Amino acid sequence: MNCDETICAIATAPGAGAIAIVRLSGEKSLELCDRVFKCRGKKPSLRPANTLVHGHVVNARGEPMDRALLLVLHGPRSYTGENTAEIQCHGGQVIARRVLEACLDAGGRMAEPGEFTRRAFLNGRMDLLQAEAVQDLIRAESDRAAAMALDQLEGGLSRRIRSVAEQIVRAVAPLEATLDFPDDEIPKISDDEILNPLREAETGIRDLLAAWKEGRILREGVRIVIQGPPNAGKSTLFNRLLGHARAIVSEHPGTTRDTVEESLVMEGVLIRLTDTAGLRETECEIEKEGVRRSRTQGTRADLVLFLLDGSRPPDPNEDKILSELDPEKSLVVVNKADQLHPSRTGVPEGGRRVVISSRTGQGEAEFHKALLEKVLCGARFSGGSGAAISERHRGLLIEAQDEVSSARADLEKSDQALWVICASRLRSALEKLRWITGEEYREDILEQIFSTFCIGK
Amino acid sequence: MKQSYDVIVVGAGHAGCEAALAASRLGAETLLVTLSRKTIARMSCNPSIGGMAKSHIVFELDALGGEMARNADYTGIQFRILNTRKGPAVQANRIQSDKDRYPLRMQTIIARQKKLEVHEGSVGRLIIENGTVRGVEIVGGQSIRSKTVVLACGTFLKGAIYIGDTKIPAGRADETAETEISDQLKECGHGVERLKTGTPPRLHKGSLNYAKMTLQPGETPAPLFSRQARRERMFHVEHSGGDTGGMFHVEQWDPDLRPWPPGIGQIPCFLTHTTARTHEIIAANLKRSALYGGAITGTGVRYCPSIEDKVVKFPDREAHHVFIEPEGRESIRIYPNGTSNSLPEPVQVEMIRSIPGLERASFIRPGYAVEYDFFDPRDLDHSLESKRIRGLFLSGQINGTTGYEEAAGQGFLAGVNAAACAIGTPSLRLSRSEAYLGVLVDDLVTKGTNEPYRMFTSRAEHRLLLRQGNAFSRMLSAASNLQILDPQDIVTMTSDDLTIKSELERLSSVRMAGESLFTILCRPGVRYPDLPGSRRDLAPELVEEIEVSARYNGYIRIERDQVIRAERLERTRIPSDADFFSIHALRRESAEKLSQIRPETLGQAGRISGVTPADIAILSVWLRRNRAATV
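^ inputs. structure came back:
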C-alpha cells in the first residue's frame, strides 16, 4: 500500500438516489481534482478547507459530463487524515460510474475494500475497535444497531474489555509474586486474593458474550420462519406482518409452493421473515420441493412461528409435530381466532400458545409482545453499554474465557506446582483481550478486518 | 604493561571479571583496571549467588563459558533449592558463598588467565576521538590505548555513602574513586540518573543467641550450578559405589581454586524476625534516616526494600523476616539479611538488639545506603555497545541493574562483544525467547529503567521454555559458536541434548497398553525410571529434564507457537538510519521515542512504552515501501 497514491471510490450505496458521492483521498487528491473538476475562481487545490464549490466534472478530453458540487477537506482534518475531496454528482450508478472513471483516468486508483478506513487507522485517526465500528455503522440496518456501533466508535467496548483485563491483572500480580519469591520472603497470599478477581473477570466475559447475542441480533437481524400445515394462514400472517400483500393468498391449501423472504423492522429490531410452503405429504413434485425447503428454513431460523389452523380440530399428528419443535426457538400460534373451533378454546397443555386472527388483527398486540420476547430471550438490551461484539471478538472472548476458567479451576486445587501454568494461561487470556482492543499488534487481524470492508469506507 | 590492548575493562566487580575473562578467553589482549587486586570480585552485599530468576542467569552463564557458576559452587558454604513446590520452571538454586573465598578464587582464576593483565589504579578519563573510544587515562599516570573499553564500575560513579546524616563520597565502604567518566558520557549524550541501594550492618558471629532462632540447614546432595562441579561429583559417585559423603575426584588439588569439595561441610543459616519494638524504634527515628530524611534522592530497589521502607509501607505487619547468614567458613561476620538501612549508627544498634537472638549483638560495621550515577541503558544497543561512543561497552550496575548475577551476565556479553569488535571473534546477542540474559538486555535497551532492575521470572514471556534445567540446551548453539568452553564441554552438552531428544522420541513411539510411554509419563506421580526401557545411566538433571518436558508438554508447545508467531516481527529489521520524522503518518511523540531508542526490529519497537499498535502498522507499511523502493 502506498499512501502517496490517490484512492477513489463511489461512497454512496448502489441504487437510485438523488445524489451520488465519489470520494478521493491522498496527498495529491486535490491536484487530481484540478484536472477533473472545473469551477470559477480558484482551482480546487488552492481552495480553503471545508468549502463547497459548484462546477463541472470533465472527462479526459475536457468535455463536461455532469454538474456537481465539490467538497474540499485538508488533512489531517478529514476522515482519512489526508487531503480529501468529495464530488457530489447526480444520482444513479451510470453518472457516478463515469465520474469515477474520469478520476481514474486522471491518475487516481480504485480504492481497495476498506482502504479509506485503513488509511484513517494508519494515520492515527481511529483505533482498531473504532475502525471495526465504522464497518458496523455502514452495515447497520436498524436504529439500535447504529446506536450500538456508534457507542463502540466512542470506545465503549474498549472500556468494558479493559475492565475485564484489569481484573485478570489483579489476579496475575499476586500469582506472579508467589512464583517470583520464595515462600518465606513474601507475606502469605490468600487464595481469595487471586480467585476473587478471576471470578469477576469470568462474570465480565460472560456478560460480554451475552451481549454478543444481542449484538448479533441487532446487526444481522433475526431470522423468523413461518411454518405450519397447509391453509393455516401463513401467508396472510406474513403479509400482515409486512403491512402489504407480498405473498399470494387463496382459499386453496398449497398455494405457497416456494419460500418467500422479506425484511421488516419491529421495535427497532431487524427481522428477516420467511413464508414457507405448508407441511404435508404430497405427490406433487413442486410442492414436495417446497415442503423440503420449508423444513430446511426451519432448522436455520432463530425462531419458528408454527401456525395452526384454529378453525379445525387438532390433527391426529399435531401433538407429535409440536413436540419436535425446539421450545427455545419456536412460538406456536393458533390462527383464525375469528372462526375458532370449540376444541381449540381451552388452554392446551405444554407451552404457551398465542391465539390470533391474521385476517382481522385480533390478538395482534399480544402476539407481537410474545414474538419479541422470544426473539430477544437471553439477550439483554443494556442500552449504550457498548455491546457491539463481532465474531472476531466473540472467538477471542471464548478463548480468553477458557483460559481464565481453567486457571481458576486449577488454582482451586491448591497444588502450587500448577501455578506456573495458571500464570501462563492468564497471560494468554490477557493477550487475547489485548488483541480485541488492538493493544497487541497482529497484522493478520488487520488484514482480516480491513478486507471485509465494503469499497468506499 | 603494554602500550595498547584490544579490550580494557574498567572495574573488577562481578561484571568486570566476567567481561575480562570472556574477552581474554576469546583471544583478545585484555587489561583489567581495578583500584586494588584485593577487591577483585568482592561481594559488597549479601554473599550469596542465585535465587529466583537470578539462578537461571547463572546456569546460562555456565553454559556459555562464564565463571560465576563454578566460583559459587567451589566456594559455597550452604546450598538450597528454592520454590520446589512451585514446579521446575520457577525453582531456583541459591548458594551462600564464603565471602573471603569467593573473591580469592576469582582473583586466582584471573591471575592465571592468559592474555589478561591486571592494573591497579583508577581511570580518570576515557580517551574519545571522533566519537570512538581509544583507551583510558589513569589518574596520576599514563594513557593506555585500546580498541574497545568495557565500563563496569558499579556504584563508583559519583558514589556517596549515607549512614544517618553522615555522607561519605565513596562507591563502597572504605574505597574512594575520582573520575570524570560520568561527565564525559553525559557530554556525549548519554542520559545520567541517580539510583540508590543499601546494605545491612554486619554483626559479630559470637554475639548472637542462636537458640532463639529457627535453623535453616542446606540441602544434600548440594544443588550445584556448574557442569564442572557436577561432573566431578558424578565421577566420584561412580568410583566410590554411590557414596556421596566423602571425597571428590579432583585432577589437581589447589586450595585457591577448590578450597573444599563442593557441597561438603555446609553451614546452616538461621531465621528470626523483627518485633513491635523494632518497628517503634524505626518509626521514631525515620527523620534521621538518610532515606526518609530526604538526603537521598535516587530511586531504590522496590523488591529488596530497606527496613525503613518495610515499616512505612506495611504498617500492619507485626514482624518481618530476618535471615541470619554467616559470611564464611572462617569468618566472624554475620549478614542479617532483611535489615538494610541508613539510620544513624546508635539507632541501628538499638534497632538490631530488639530482634530475638540479637539482643547482645555487637557491630562490626553499620548498615549504609549508597547513591550512585547510572546511565540510561536505552543509549545502548543489544550488544551493550554505546550508540553515542563507538567501541564503548557498558555493563552491570551502571546500566541501572541490581544483583551480582545480572551484573555478571551483562559483563560476559559486553566482554564477548568488545572482543568481537576488537578482534573479529563472534558476537553474542540472545533473544527473549532463548535466555533470561536476552530478556535482561532487551528490557534494558528497549524500556530503560527508573529503579534498580532486578531479574524476575515474570519478566520473561516464555517462562516455561526458559528453565534452569534446559539452560545448556538453550545456550548450545551460542556456546558452540563462541568456543569459550573447553571443546570437550561442547561435546558433552551436545550429547546430553541429543540424549534428551532421543529419549523423548523413544517414549513417544513405544506404546504400552495402547498408550505411549510419553503419555504415561505425563500422569502425575509417574517418574521416568518407572517406565520400561528407561536408561539407568542418565545424570539426575537429564532425568528431570525428560520428566519436565512431559509434564509441561502442552504448555511448552503453546509457548513455542507464540514464539514462532512473534518471530516475523522480531526478524523485520529497521534500518539504523531510519528517519522516523519523515514518516508523516507517525505521531510526533512516537517518532521521538523511536528516534531515541532506535529499535533494531519491529518486535523491539512494539515493546517501547508508548508506541502503539497503530504506530507499528504504520512502520510496517513504511518499511515495506522503503524496501520496495531500494530493491
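Chain B has 19 helices and 22 strands. The radius of gyration of chain B is 25 Å.
thumbs up if we can close this ticket
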